[in-house]
Task: inverse folding
């Protein structure tokens, strides 16, 4: 699964990484080493640009960096609170689940991340790990997005997203049986294309080669508290340190 991750690069940097334009309009969240559900997050989408009347141009596509809220709210939902329970979508059932199948068909996104956290149960405790590219590059997590409009027609629509998860691969299985669906750069065009059904072929677990390029780093249990969001959260525990640290001491 994916319940917390780190995202510290600004939209301008991500625009270069993903060959996109910055469409955040100054609303981008700041660097956060402990992104939690319902927070605003950065995402990458490809859409047909629209004219002043709202008509899409079928001959053009633009890839852009957008701001969304983590926790997908389907367009048909009566209450946007449902999003807090829909932060992840299972890749093996996403094409059939009513909450996700429309988004899977036409509203796919990438969610940039420095890495994500996962917890390994050790006895009576859970040890957090930060899983990140060893070379410091940006991960592209496969995601879905949706636009929700409430009863107030004048209110701004709520744009939300979910992270796809799949079976864990390689050494990640020793930590948890699920992991985010990571997509290599070669797969980004097909995943983001709003006119293509080819994305269905990308729903399998990532390759062993892709996973081997990740570092599995034990980190402090300070990440358990969403009030903590600084760079100390991704610092590797020293071998002589206990796995579980006192949060009051960290503060």
Result:
């Amino acid at each position: 699964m994916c319940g917390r991750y780190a995202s510290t690069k600004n939209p301008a940097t991500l625009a270069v990484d993903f060959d996109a334009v910055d469409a955040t309009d100054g609303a981008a969240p700041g660097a956060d080493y402990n992104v939690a559900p319902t927070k605003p997050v950065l995402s990458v989408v490809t859409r047909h640009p629209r004219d002043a009347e709202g008509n899409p141009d079928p001959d053009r596509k633009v890839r852009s960096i957008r701001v969304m809220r983590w926790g997908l709210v389907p367009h048909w939902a009566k209450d946007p609170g449902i999003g807090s329970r829909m932060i992840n979508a299972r890749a093996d059932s996403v094409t059939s689940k009513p909450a996700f199948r429309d988004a899977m068909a036409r509203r796919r996104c990438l969610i940039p991340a420095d890495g994500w956290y996962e917890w390994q149960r050790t006895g009576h405790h859970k040890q957090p790990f930060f899983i990140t590219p060893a070379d410091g590059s940006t991960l592209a997590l496969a995601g879905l997005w949706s636009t929700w409009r409430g009863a107030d027609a004048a209110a701004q629509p709520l744009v939300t997203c979910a992270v796809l998860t799949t079976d864990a691969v390689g050494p990640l299985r020793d930590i948890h049986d699920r992991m985010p669906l990571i997509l290599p750069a070669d797969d980004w065009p097909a995943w983001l294309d709003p006119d293509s059904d080819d994305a269905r072929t990308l729903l399998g677990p990532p390759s062993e080669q892709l996973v081997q390029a990740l570092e599995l780093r034990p980190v402090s249990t300070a990440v358990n508290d969403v009030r903590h969001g600084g760079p100390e959260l991704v610092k590797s525990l020293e071998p002589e340190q206990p796995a579980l640290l006192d949060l009051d001491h960290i503060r």
Observations:
- Confidence is low (pLDDT under 50) at residues 240-251.
- The first strand starts at residue 5 and ends at 7.
- The chain has five helices and 13 strands.
